[in-house]
Structure formats: structure tokens, C-alpha cells
């Protein structure tokens, strides 16, 4: 018996790797791996939970081109202004940012 069962996962589903990559092309397209979930998004900002923490992406005319939750893949198109990883231990800065996000 060569196959190893991963307890807690449905049969036939492989374990998602802990890798996280971000690939940007011409400030217009982002391909992101290692996404755990999409917290919120609109045409100016995306907030993603990744294997490496929360990632905020801001820009103009942003839209989700592709979403594959099973594999943790997200593709975003639009004019990208900035990307920031948010640390949970930042205290006031983190609270202020999330307060602004969820007004």
C-alpha cells in the first residue's frame, strides 16, 4: 500500500503546500499562490489571507480574473498601486488599518 491517507482531508484531495508566491506582470496582472481565503475585495482593494499573513493589494479597476480555492490560487487584474503584508503584532497600526477597511 503505497498511498498515504491525509487525515482530515477528503479522499483524492492533495495537501495544499505552504508555499506562497506573488507574480506581477506590468503592474496590471497579479498571480498569487498560497491563498487561504479572500477576506474582502472591491475595485480598489483586495484583502487576502495567505500562508505568509494578510496581504492587502490596492489599485484602480481591480477585479478577480481567477479564483481556485482548492489550490489557493488567485489572479487579479487592474492598475496595481501597492501591496502590503499586514502583521498582526503591529498594534495600533493594524487596528487602524482594519478599522478603515471595515467601516
Strand order of the largest sheet: 1-2-6-5-4-3
**Beta fraction:** over 45%
What's the total helix number? 1
Number of strands: 6
Gross CATH architecture: Sandwich
Radius of gyration: 16 Å
The 3D shape can be described as globular
Q: Structural class of the helices, strands and pairings? A: mainly beta
Straight-line N-to-C gap? 54 Å
Compute the average pLDDT: 81
Largest sheet, in brief, is: 6 strands, antiparallel
CATH topology-level fold name: Immunoglobulin-like
Structure description:
Helix content is 10%, strand content 50%. It is mainly beta and 103 residues long. A hairpin with a 3-residue loop joins β3 and β4. It is globular. InterPro entries: Spore_YabP (IPR012504), Spore_YabP/YqfC (IPR022476), YabP_sf (IPR038705). One of its GO terms (biological process) is sporulation resulting in formation of a cellular spore. This is Spore coat protein.
Amino acid at each position: 500500500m503505497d498511498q498515504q491517507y491525509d487525515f482530515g482531508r477528503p479522499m483524492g484531495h492533495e495537501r495544499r503546500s505552504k508555499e506562497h508566491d506573488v507574480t506581477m506582470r506590468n503592474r496590471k496582472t497579479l498571480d498569487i499562490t498560497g491563498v487561504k481565503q479572500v477576506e474582502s475585495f472591491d475595485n480598489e482593494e483586495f484583502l487576502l489571507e495567505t500562508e505568509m499573513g494578510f496581504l492587502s493589494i490596492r489599485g484602480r479597476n481591480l477585479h478577480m480574473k481567477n479564483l481556485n480555492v482548492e489550490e489557493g490560487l488567485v489572479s487579479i487584474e487592474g492598475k496595481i498601486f501597492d501591496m502590503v503584508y499586514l502583521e498582526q503584532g503591529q498594534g495600533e497600526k493594524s487596528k487602524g488599518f482594519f478599522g478603515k477597511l471595515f467601516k
